[in-house]
Amino acid sequence: LFIVIVFSGHKQKTYxxxxxxxxxxxxxxxxxxxxxxxxxxxxxxxxxxNVDELISWVGLIRDQKIDHxxxxxxxxxxxxxxxxxxxxxxxxxxxxxxxxxIREEDIVALEIAIDRMEEELDPVQSxxxxxxxxxxxxCHIARNVCRRAERNVLRLHPDFPLxxxxxxxxxRLSDYFFVLSRKIGKDFNADEIPWKLRx
Length: 199
What we know:
Order of helices and strands: EEEEHHHEHHE
Helix content: 40-55%
Strand order of the largest sheet: 1-2
Number of helices: 5
Strand content: 5-15%
Structural class: alpha+beta
Shape: globular
């Protein structure tokens, strides 16, 4: 942490600014929310890191030329995922910050979006091979990362108290990305290739 002083006319403004590098992690540890130091490979950090990766994939998807309705929800999803990552990296023993990461209405919002998109899509008859358009593939990658994050979160359950809505949200979110991939594929006239079991 360092102080930046800016002079504007006759007024002096002082800002507190964080340095991007602290060197505190050079030994392979990092801080949980609350200050406790843990290895960077700690299960809580691993889970939060996977959610962080998912946030970046969502950013890539929303940066494309898609409907604003999708973009608005994707921004909301990123916000909710940031709350998930915060809660996953929380040291419940020392941190007294009270927060509600995910609520039932966040899950309902995903379900409403899924139902709306599915109204325009043919029923799924089999597994679908990802591809046909780069944006379709990115949606599938987001779905994959979301499932990985969900698995990491589930591994925490025996040892750490968790908001059950986080698991429920990630589960519904992976479904959202699958349906979004199909909706975008239809919008871009991409071929949807079904996978058939070879007998």
